[in-house]
Amino acid sequence: MLLARIEKPYFLLCLVFSQLMFVLLFYRRGASSIFQGIFGSNPAWDYSRTHDVYTNLSFFTPDPEAVRTLYCPVRSPILVGPLSITFGRTPSLKKIQLRNRYVKPGGYFSPKHCYGRYRTAVIIPHRNRESHLQTLLYYLHPLLQRQQLHYAIFVVHQAGNATFNRAKLLNIGVREALRYDTWDCLILHDVDLVPENDYNLYVCDTSRPKHMSSAMDKFQYSLPYWAYFGGVSAVTPDQFMKINGFPNTYWGWGGEDDDIADRIRLSGLSITRTPLSLGRYKMIPHDRDNGNEENLHRYNLLKNTRKTWKEDGMNSLHFTLLSREQTALYTNITVDIGEAPPAPTEDSRWKFF
Ligand code: UD2
Ligand code: MN
Description:
Helices cover 30% and strands 15% of the residues. The chain is α/β, with parallel strands linked by helices. The chain has a single domain (43-352), classed as Spore Coat Polysaccharide Biosynthesis Protein SpsA, Chain A (Alpha-Beta Complex). The strands form two sheets. An eight-stranded mixed β-sheet has the order 8-5-7-3-1-2-11-10, sandwiched between helices.
């Protein structure tokens, strides 16, 4: 019966086609997301049973007798999984400081019992979102400590009222973070995204840029589209330099995340993604900020990424550093990044078509 069917050419064609589609899907989205698509979300994590984000931190009470001799294990033994996250009252800086007694000025931390195996810099672009920043610090510090990382948090603050430029601030954050220390991993992190599971490790994949916020509550815990690269991502310094960093030319909301995904592809790399069951984030609800209006030129810019990515990025980054400050919970870098160029006139706009 099967043999008779196989002899029919259209049946063979269908078979080959469906196998090709399957291989393509595997390659693009990873096996785990396909299984999740078919069987629903991974039952291994029960997000209805969550843990306090400060669980197990007493483990870090330093023992004056202890001598650090070994590297921390690859997977920290004190992780707890799904976390309780609520966005009620903003935790005060004082409270966050009290609960994170071993975080050093500049937002540095190094495990006390072992040598941190991974060195991670978290970089946050910021303006006028102090309450979001405090909420993120309240949740992120204990999570990173439980992961036993050697880490620091850098906040790059755009001074003035010019249009916001997320990608350029991230470029600056990388350049500055690398002046302070050597890092295995750079985590580019929106200020308003809080991770829901401490098994979502803040470390890099050494062969591919990693998109970490694959499942956000604002998109019903699914990926909005397959090339999506917004929110939280992790790249090694080498990967970041290979893609010439992020574009400096996207002013206002939108487009820069797609440009980054494009430059990853154009430089010969590909994206890996944290599985949907793990890459879960809650976004602190907010309206669009003043000074971060939708970037209406983004589609024109995106059409040209292929031509521009080698000239627009880390190798064309200019800014004025206004201050570097080691606050109790993070390193604050304040910069003047200039202004968006004047909007193209009607005449020049036509040249794109
Ligand atoms: C989405 C993406 C984000 C980025 C953006 C388009 C998610 C969760 N995130 O964010 O990564 O691609 O679209 O540009 O889908 N910010 C400030 N002050 C401002 C404006 C922005 O600090 O006045 C920072 C802050 O870190 C914020 C980030 O820029 O999280 C992105 O801006 P957004 O949160 O307003 O945009 P959103 O949520 O649509
Ligand atoms: Mn947001």
